[in-house]
Design brief:
Elements: H1 6-27, E1 31-36, E2 42-45, H2 52-66, H3 69-82, H4 93-108, H5 111-125, E3 151-153, H6 160-170, H7 173-190, E4 200-203, E5 210-214, H8 226-240, H9 247-260, H10 283-297, H11 303-323, E6 354-356, H12 357-370
Antiparallel strand pairs: 1-2, 1-6, 3-4, 4-5
Helix pairs in contact: 1-12, 2-3, 2-4, 2-12, 3-4, 4-5, 4-6, 5-6, 6-7, 8-9, 8-10, 10-11, 10-12, 11-12
Length: 377
């Protein structure tokens, strides 16, 4: 499948913004989490859980792209509702406040967003465990295991961008060092020789040695859960902007992704499910990977490798837009601009063929990155 022409990508952006407008009107004052793939009705939550930053991030992107102050006002409105989460002991606060607050500082120069992001980064950085070299899951992580202080998930790696950004803003070298350690430890603990990733790792609390590697949300404990691969890819790419030693891990994870999606760029929910192709796909992980591949293309020095990453990202966007983004017109009863076929937690039977708020975010981010005008985020 070839890349979409520019006008098709622009149309996809317009459709996503229609969905943002409809969602804001439908869910206020709550946060959208997942929407039924048939009707588009959102499941919502008062404080946004770990996904709330992606909804606010969508609003920041919409403001940046359109210049409309209504999007900025909406972003600030929902961002304020995220503030109580600063006190929560959860490594995924990195995601919440990088996309929900730091993005507002980067894209809109918003002073309140900057202040909230710095406060959240400070709180998250203080949860760093020096013996382990990571910020562990945390007591409020909702982990399926019990190791809040001795375990970690690859899901939390992209959120270290919050600490790295805050270090640059504040001059706090400790935050930068903790972010760097967290990412490198995940590359050591979760990355397999073939470039696939385990989702989770457990550490000896006395020595910091890795005692277990596993995948609690995937098909099996030793499988490659698709969203673990996309979280790791995104996290390593974001980190490699400031720590070039992480770039080889990012390229290995990217090369695995591209090998396993060479025939069809929209990935199944777990790369190792033996029932493929008669299983669910995950468009949310796929959109995230497309965005990460575009970022990686801008980092690598080799022009041929950069071209491969960008071409695969563009093929991925074309597939998502033409096959999974609901169109305008009377022939489809669903709301316009839904990214369908996201798979949240298949093992738990939770939202397996749904629109997922982070999928919408990463699709819009990737579409805007594919064209001119969006700063590195």
């Amino acid at each position: 499948m070839s890349s979409c022409p520019r006008d098709s990508l622009d149309d996809a952006v317009r459709r996503l913004l229609v969905r943002v407008d409809g969602t804001a009107a439908a869910v206020r004052p709550r946060f959208p989490l997942a929407a039924d793939g048939e009707r588009g009705a959102w499941e919502t939550h008062a404080d946004g859980r770990w996904t709330g930053g992606f909804w606010v991030g969508l609003l920041w992107l919409a403001h940046r792209h359109t210049g409309q102050e209504a999007y900025r006002a909406a972003a600030r409105e929902w961002m304020a509702r995220l503030a109580p989460r600063v006190a929560i002991d959860n490594v995924l606060n990195g995601l919440v406040f990088y996309y929900g607050a730091a993005l507002g500082a980067v894209l809109a120069g918003d002073d309140d967003a900057r202040a909230l992001a710095l406060a959240a980064a400070g709180a998250l950085g203080r949860r760093f465990e020096p013996v382990l070299g990571i910020v562990p899951l945390g007591a409020e992580s909702g982990s399926v295991t019990s190791g809040a202080k001795t375990e970690t998930n690859i899901d939390g790696v992209p959120g270290m961008a919050l600490l790295a950004w805050a270090a640059g803003e504040s001059g706090d070298a400790t935050l930068a060092a903790r972010a760097r350690s967290h990412v490198r430890r995940h590359a050591e603990a979760c990355l397999r020789d073939d470039g696939g990733l385990f989702q989770a790792a457990a550490f000896d609390p006395a020595t910091g040695a890795v005692v277990r590697r596993f995948t609690p949300r995937g098909y099996a404990e030793d499988s490659t859960w698709t969203r673990a691969q996309s979280w790791g890819l995104l996290g390593f790419v974001l980190a490699a902007r400031r720590d070039r030693d992480v770039l080889p891990a990012a390229t290995r994870v990217a090369d695995f992704w591209m090998r396993r999606t060479a025939d069809d760029p929209v990935a199944f929910w777990d790369f190792d499910d033996p029932a493929i192709p008669a299983v669910e796909r995950d468009t949310s992980a796929t959109a995230m990977a497309a965005s990460a591949l575009l970022k990686l293309a801008a980092l690598v020095a080799d022009a041929e490798a950069a071209g491969r990453y960008r071409t695969h990202a563009e093929r991925t966007l074309a597939a998502l837009v033409t096959r999974y983004l609901t169109p305008v017109g009377p022939t489809d009863p669903r709301p316009v601009g839904m990214l369908t076929e996201g798979c949240w937690q298949r093992r738990q039977g939770m939202a397996v063929k749904h629109e997922l708020i982070w999928g919408d975010y990463f699709l819009l981010e990737a579409l805007l990155q594919a064209g001119p005008g969006l700063p590195a985020v």
